[in-house]
């Protein structure tokens, strides 16, 4: 088993105490937020300029599956918060359970997204709105899959004894990313389904 400390050597004798890793994760989240802003801009641009009909058929989509998916992601935000607190308190069992639960909830969200795609009354190539809708929700689904993979990697680190109250940067980065994914879905849900 490989043990790592919070301070690691990085080229020419310099030591990284985690600030660079945290700053990198913050920059990744900011870049991803800008990506979603651009995607939403394109959605509203096409909607405002009237280049197609939204929603298709002038009817609002059924919100039952998207609302359930929203609830699942909000619940997963709570389990991720539980994981962060467990890591700070050194509660290894709670950390493993919370990270696992967050991953399972993320996979349930993806399952709901696939079901939603199969039942929507529009195809990817129906019109510009359908294309933008699928692009935005598809990018978000990819981010959820990425978050699940990060969570699983952190869970494996926890099972390997590599997470402790003084070595929990991996949990903090996973928590930041996961909360971003959840907040992004809240915004996308409001933009795509409500307004």
What does this protein structure show overall?
The protein is mainly alpha-helical and 195 residues long. The protein has a single domain (17-194), classed as Four Helix Bundle (Hemerythrin (Met), subunit A). It has 5 helices and 2 strands. The chain has helices at residues 19-48, 64-89, 92-119, 128-159, 169-194, and strands spanning 8-10, 14-16. The protein has a two-stranded antiparallel ribbon. A hairpin with a 3-residue loop joins strand 1 and strand 2 (14-16). 29% of the residues are buried. Residues 1-5 have low confidence and may be disordered.
Strand ordering within the main sheet? 1-2
| Strand composition percent | under 5%
- Rg: 19 Å
Backbone structural class = mainly alpha
Q: How would you spell out the order of helices and strands?
A: EEHHHHH
Q: Tell me about the biggest sheet? A: 2 strands, antiparallel
Gross morphology: elongated
Topology (SSEs and partners):
Layout: E1 8-10, E2 14-16, H1 19-48, H2 64-89, H3 92-119, H4 128-159, H5 169-194
Antiparallel strand pairs: 1-2
In short:
This protein is mostly helical and 195 residues long. It has 5 helices and 2 strands, in the order ββααααα. The longest helix has 32 residues.
């Amino acid at each position: 088993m490989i043990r790592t400390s919070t301070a690691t050597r990085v080229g020419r004798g310099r030591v990284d105490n985690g600030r660079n890793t945290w700053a990198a994760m913050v920059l990744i989240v900011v870049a991803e937020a800008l990506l979603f802003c651009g995607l939403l801009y394109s959605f509203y641009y096409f909607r405002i300029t009237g280049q197609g009909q939204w929603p298709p058929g002038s009817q609002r989509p059924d919100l039952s599956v998207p609302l359930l998916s929203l609830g699942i992601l909000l619940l997963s935000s709570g389990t991720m918060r539980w994981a962060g607190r467990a890591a700070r308190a050194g509660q290894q069992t709670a950390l493993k359970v919370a990270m696992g639960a967050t991953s399972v909830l993320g996979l349930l969200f993806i399952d709901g997204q696939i079901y939603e795609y199969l039942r929507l009354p529009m195809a990817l190539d129906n019109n510009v709105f359908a294309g933008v809708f699928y692009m935005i929700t598809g990018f978000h689904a990819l981010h959820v899959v990425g978050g699940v993979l990060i969570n699983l990697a952190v869970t494996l680190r926890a099972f390997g004894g590599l997470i402790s109250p003084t070595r929990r940067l991996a949990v903090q980065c996973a928590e930041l990313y996961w909360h971003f994914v959840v907040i992004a879905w809240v915004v996308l849900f409001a933009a795509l389904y409500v307004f």
